[in-house]
Description:
The complex is a heterodimer of chains A (175) and B (142). With 175 residues, chain A is of the alpha/beta class. Chain A contains 5 helices and 7 strands; from the N terminus they run H-E-E-E-H-E-H-E-H-E-E-H. Chain B is mainly α and 142 residues long. The longest helix of chain B has 27 residues. The termini of chain B are far apart.
Amino acid sequence: xxxxxxxxxxxxxxxxxxxxxxxxxxxxxxxxxxxxxxxxxxxxxxxxxxxxxxxxxxxxxxxxxxxxxxxxxxxxxxxxxxxxxxxxxxxxxxxxxxxxxxxxxxxxxxxxxxxxxxxxxxxxxxxxxxxxxxxxxxxxxxxxxxxxxxxxxxxxxxxxxxxxxxxxxxxxxxx
Amino acid sequence: xxxxxxxxxxxxxxxxxxxxxxxxxxxxxxxxxxxxxxxxxxxxxxxxxxxxxxxxxxxxxxxxxxxxxxxxxxxxxxxxxxxxxxxxxxxxxxxxxxxxxxxxxxxxxxxxxxxxxxxxxxxxxxxxxxxxxxxxxxxxxx
Lengths: 175, 142
């Protein structure tokens, strides 16, 4: 009997380990290497007006969301309603990073679905996207008042994720 | 007639090959070889079980272009690896750099091999100490 105990324990351990791996959630979601570090600086023309620049200099002072989006991104459409609600609640400023997209398409999309962003930076060449380690839209970065990256979420936002992953990381903000 | 049909079919079958964008080329064969080696060691984050050499998603093409640019600028392999790790994390490299965070990945195979070896030695020792049984009884033993 005794000789079966160890293999059994080993196999059970392995099963627990593998199940934990499976339940870890989206295997594509990697922790951003920028968490705890200052957001990489950038300055880009805004989507709606190429003469106006926008960048990290605009973000400091309060908690800020930077949402990476594109018109070709199906999941961006899925989270758009939530972003509109969040913008209407005025609980946090939301900036967009329009990623690998075309200006006319993106402007049309905001016209049709509404524009939750204070402004969107226009990055068709993936210059800033690469500096920020963006690898799939939608991605949402939470910056603290000092401009440090507190959290990055891969995939569409919804109220549950907002409460669990974002609000809980915003110290001193009314929940 | 038959031949031309076969040729046509063969050409059609080869069409997907056009979808592969091998990206940048260098005049210097050494740089080309370095480029090929580097892009085969970088994971495509959008399609995680492919290298950026094998993948034709847009992000992989961007990274190939960026790596080609850095090679042209004369940056070292270590500088290129740093560029990727600061942006995408250790996970982007198929051969992660040796550091506190990745130590586990590097030593785990040796630790597991050692555990296996110890187990093997123990089993062999145990078997060797068993009395030798009569050949005739084999099969009924246990």
